[in-house]
From TrEMBL:
This is Fatty acid synthase. SUPFAM superfamilies: Thiolase-like. Residues 1-240 form the Ketosynthase family 3 (KS3) domain. The gene is FAS. Keywords: Phosphopantetheine, Phosphoprotein, Transferase. PROSITE patterns: KS3_1 (PS00606), KS3_2 (PS52004). Pfam families: ketoacyl-synt, Ketoacyl-synt_C. It comes from uncultured Porifera. The keyword NAD does not apply. The keyword Transferase applies. GO terms for molecular function: 3-oxoacyl-[acyl-carrier-protein] synthase activity; fatty acid synthase activity. GO terms for biological process: fatty acid biosynthetic process.
Length: 240
């Protein structure tokens, strides 16, 4: 009965975290009781909107089933992890900010192991209505970032989990773990006051990237791949 009252995002997070541990070569049983940190990026409350439409379906487990805070806490509960456990909601950047917080805790030796996850599931028409009224959705159903033909973005679903440990790539400390990549660092800032509370600042984003490249001693010209938050909207993805 509790599972039926859970936001599907909570359920799929448990799945991808288990898969991430397996992929990293870490048996979940070996982490029981350990100070593992859990950092989840999530902002979608579609399930709450859909259930509230039928109030007769609400039971006692609904309170924890819809809480974004429980999205991370349930992971810590199921795997019996004792480290920090938090859900971070900064809209589209939620997962990246969660990653930044995890890296900071690892860098300062607050946790020996961190699990970072993000999830977004589309379960209600309510956000579609709001985004449509704001003219943010593509009427053609195609998101074309950085294109002159861009006319909006398209909502989508996804869930991912990463297992992080402090150290250099190739150094597993004698552990039979699979290292997939090395993260040099992350940075977070706020644009402060712009022309609108939800509108980005090109100057603010550029300042963050410059500071990050300088701190990590990365030359932008040598980047081989860039994954951007290209929404294809007039305000969020402006074309000069």
């Amino acid at each position: 009965r509790e599972a039926l009252q859970m936001d599907p995002q909570q359920r799929i997070l448990l799945e991808v975290v288990w898969e991430a541990l397996e992929n990293a070569g870490i048996p979940p049983s070996q982490t029981v009781g350990e100070k593992v940190g859990v950092y989840v990026g999530a902002s979608n409350v579609d399930y709450q909107n859909s259930v509230v439409a039928d109030q007769s379906a609400i039971e006692g487990h609904f309170v924890t089933g819809i809480a974004l805070s429980i999205a991370s806490n349930r992971i810590s509960y199921v795997f019996d992890w004792k480290g920090p456990s938090m859900t971070i909601d900064t809209a589209c950047s939620s997962s990246m900010v969660a990653l930044s917080r995890a890296l900071d805790d690892l860098d300062h030796d607050r946790v020996p192991l961190a699990v970072v996850a993000g999830v977004n599931m589309l379960l209600s028409p309510v956000p579609y209505i709001g985004f449509s009224c704001a003219r943010m959705l593509s009427p053609t159903g195609l998101c074309r970032p950085f294109s002159a033909d861009a006319d909006g973005y398209v909502r989508s679903e996804g869930a991912v989990a990463l297992v992080l440990r402090k150290g250099r790539a190739g150094d597993a400390g004698g552990r039979a773990e699979r290292v997939r990549a090395e993260i040099l660092g992350a940075g977070v800032n706020s644009d402060g006051r712009t022309v609108g509370v939800s509108l980005p600042s090109v100057a603010g984003q550029a300042a963050l990237l410059r500071a990050l490249y300088d701190r990590l001693e990365v030359e932008p010209a040598k980047l081989a791949f860039v994954e951007a938050h290209g929404t294809g909207t007039q305000l969020g993805d402006p074309r000069a």
